[in-house]
Amino acid sequence: MKKKKPVVPNPMPCGPLLRVVWLDSTGWSRWTDLDDFLAEQVPKESCRCETVGWLVHEDKEKLIVASSRSVISAIDGILQIPKCAILKRTEIE
Fold first, then answer.
1. Which one is predicted more confidently, 16 or 93?
2. How many domains does the chain fold into?
3. Residue 32: inside a domain, yes or no?
4. pTM
């Protein structure tokens, strides 16, 4: 006789679990000579990031995910990603 898998209730009304691949923005917060910066510090490529989280909100400009959720309807690790920065989005089953 096969054991039944336990039913795990959805702890809160978030959307699906997603894996999002996106390009990060970069900033510098110090005085830098423009010529030195252009010659030596401009990154060769953008920083490619991956985030896994539950969909909290989505509209035409952004996607908001939370990396943690609890049974008391609380979320943590909230990240807003502009849709123009998203390279790939996959729903995790």
1. 16
2. 1
3. yes
4. 0.75
